[in-house]
Amino acid sequence: MGWFWSLALRINGLAGPVVMLLYPLYASIIAIESPFKEDDQQWLTYWVLYSFITLLELGAGPVFAWIPLWSTIKLATAAWLVLPQFRGATIIYEHYVRPYFYKSAANVVDKKQQLTDSQRKFLSSMSPQARASVADFIDNNGLDAFDKLIAAANAESTKRRAES
């Protein structure tokens, strides 16, 4: 049975860097080059969570050393965060980080000024300069005027597609 644990430790030693660093590095580069923003969210969230776990291990390493199979648990968690079948990083972001962020932001920003998911999606497709212009527009005219502007742009786009 001693050979089994020796083999498991050696596999963890090799699989850990591959699952936690090499594959996410490759997938992050692919996400940067893709035109879609959804994969960017997955990998940015992964790197934030990976950094958090690494910092936690640096601070509490001796405590984690006492947890049986800690390296295996860490590897399984990293695989869940990384693998496209599970998209664990996105799940954690949407269920824990985003609600906490908006809950804390609600104390600073009036709830009427919070953007909807469709508005955020629309803004994420713009350049940083365009986003700054939109922020100025919202500050000057209000969020309702921004909604009307998006609706007019969608109607114009639909009209153009129908004419084509």
UniProtKB/TrEMBL annotation:
Q: Does the keyword Ribosomal protein apply?
A: no
Q: Where are the transmembrane segments?
A: 12-32, 44-67
Q: Record keywords: Iron-sulfur included?
A: no
Cleavable signal peptide: none
A Pfam family (short name) is TB2_DP1_HVA22
Subcellular localization(s) per the UniProt record: Membrane
Record keywords: Membrane, Transmembrane, Transmembrane helix
- Main localization of the protein described in the UniProt heading: membrane
Q: How does it sit in the membrane?
A: Multi-pass membrane protein
Protein family per UniProt: Belongs to the DP1 family.
Put simply, this protein is called HVA22-like protein
Species this protein is from:
Sphagnum troendelagicum
